[in-house]
Amino acid sequence: MSAPGGAPGGGGGGDADGGGGGRYGEAVFRPEQAGEGERIDFGALAYDDITLARLRALGAGPGWRCLDVGAGTGTVAHRLLDEAGVDSVLAVDRDVRFLARRAVPGLDVAEADVTAPDFAAGRGRFRLVHARFVLMHLPERERLIRTLARLVEPGGVLVLSDAVDLTSDRAGSDGTPYALAMRAMWRGLRAEIGTDVSWVPSCPGLLRDAGLTGVAAEIHVPPLVPGSPISRFWADTWQRGRAAMLATGLIDDEGLDEAIRYLDSDGCAALSAGMLTAWGRKAATGAVAP
Question: What start and end residues bound the annotated signal peptide (predicted)?
């Protein structure tokens, strides 16, 4: 789905190196927690315009049958229907409470775990398969990318977006509360639920390895402006992930509170995490891949 602090649609436990004993939506970011839908929507407000522009540039429009994995609150699915004019969207999430509240014609909702071995069984093929901020929380990413690629019809496109960390590796040099909070967040989420963004720059190569062609990628970094959706998203994410962040020992309560205040200050001069979007097409029937 929908926001770099996580998408509730994945499932799965820790990553391949043993990190993370929980699952997104259980150990942290529980969907039943008050305000969780709003937190996800802040992230969507920061990234949806970029996502929709890319999907439309790739051809999403009338006649397209689409699959949105980890659909969150359904903002991308709704805009594909309303703005791109696609025929239908199957929105899949491990918890569909937010999707069920926003039913519209053309939107089908399925509660499912993309990590399940039979996830692709019986779903047919789609002109567009999209997953945003999902794979970064899951193990076996190469297998999952191959699974998603199999769901793409000939001539269709697979589009994957995940977070890229542009800040926390500088925490030791600049030592600002913001940089320390970002570092603590990524380390805490990795320990708690297996979140890992270190592999994300390799996503284009993984799409090629899955047999897709015309692979390309881009990065978008939303500006950190006081009161902006992305600033509010990070502040809320840090509040909800406070225990995991403090457990890293990289930051204390006072430092985290200072980092949250910094996000809403005129003195804020930092980079948010970015969103890397990579895409590739399945060769049309009869075509020969280069």
Answer: none
Query: Does the reported pTM lie above 0.85?
Result: yes
70: nearest Cα among 19, 138, 18, 14? 138
Which residues have CB under 8 Å from 99's CB, separation 6+?
71, 72, 73, 74, 77, 91, 93, 107, 109
Which residue ranges form the domains of the chain, and what is each CATH number?
36-165+195-222+273-281 (3.40.50.150)
CA 282/CA 36 separation, integer angstroms: 36
CA of residue 146 relative to chain centroid, distance = 18
Helices first, then strands: H and E counts in the chain: 10, 7
Q: Which residue has the tokens 């009869």?
A: 286
Compute mean pLDDT per 10 residues along the chain, 290 residues long, and list them: 48 39 69 86 95 98 98 96 98 93 93 94 96 95 97 98 86 73 95 94 98 98 95 96 95 97 93 96 70
- Residue linked to tokens 């990190």: 19
Residue closest to 199 by CA, chosen among 171, 162, 157? 162
Calculate the alpha carbon distances from 88 to 10, 67, 81, 226, 265 in Å: 21, 9, 7, 37, 42
Q: Which of 58, 53, 41, 51 is nearest to 276 (CA)?
A: 51
CB 96 within 8 A of CB 35: no
User: Do the Cβ atoms of 148 and 161 come closer than 8 Å?
Assistant: no
For residue 36, list its beta bridge partners. Answer: none
Q: Residue 225 contacts by C-beta under 8 Å, 6 or more apart in sequence? A: 231, 268
* CA pair distance 199, 178, nearest whole angstrom: 23
Residue 6 in tokens: 């996580």
